[in-house]
Amino acid sequence: MSTRAVPSVLFVCVHNAGRSQMAAAFLTRLGGDRVEVRSAGSAPADTVNPAVVEALAEVGIDICAEVPKVLTTEAVQASDVVITMGCGDACPYFPGKRYLDWKLEDPAGQGVAAVRPIRDQIEQLIRGLLAELGIEPVA
């Protein structure tokens, strides 16, 4: 970890339209200002998956204004923890960073019913990450 006041976490998936957006939204909500959150994609989509937006809205998280962002070397360098979700070898590696790979089903092309279990799995992973970081969840 760096000497920053709060840890920084980067979530990476291919399109930054589903899994990484959900993870970033949950960590932002549950970590509050005690963690810095980024998300990006190795090949960003044009928009966030509408089923993901709907699934998060069901649990009171609004990501309507979010847009997929491109993965940059700078984003990786600025993060303490890099969590990949199916981006393969597209994520740059830097010594001294903590890397995790979360095996999650891809919500691309899925309806909201298929996205809900992925959303719930991500929430549990985020709660576990917060515990590892020594951060008590906000909600």
Mean pLDDT: 92
Number of helices: 4
Order of helices and strands: EHEHHEEH
Tell me the strand order in the biggest sheet: 2-1-3-4
Give the biggest beta sheet. Answer: 4 strands, parallel
The helix fraction, in percent, is 25-40%
Q: Oligomer, anyone?
A: single chain
Find the count of extended strands (DSSP E, 2+ residues): 4
Give the N-to-C terminal Cα separation: 25 Å
Radius of gyration: 14 Å
Shape: globular
Strand content: 5-15%
Instruction: Indicate the structural class.
Output: alpha/beta
Q: Can you walk through the features of this model?
A:
This protein has helices at 19-31, 50-57, 73-77, 112-133; strands spanning 8-13, 36-41, 81-84, 98-101. β1 (8-13), α1 (19-31) and β2 form a beta-alpha-beta unit. The model has no long low-confidence stretch (mean pLDDT 92). The chain is globular and about 40 Å long. It is of the alpha/beta class. α1 (19-31) packs across α4 and α2 (50-57) packs across α4 (112-133). The protein has a 4-stranded parallel sheet with strand order 2-1-3-4, with helices on one face.
Question: What's the structural blueprint in terms of helices and strands?
Answer:
Elements: E1 8-13, H1 19-31, E2 36-41, H2 50-57, H3 73-77, E3 81-84, E4 98-101, H4 112-133
Parallel strand pairs: 1-2, 1-3, 3-4
Helix pairs in contact: 1-4, 2-4
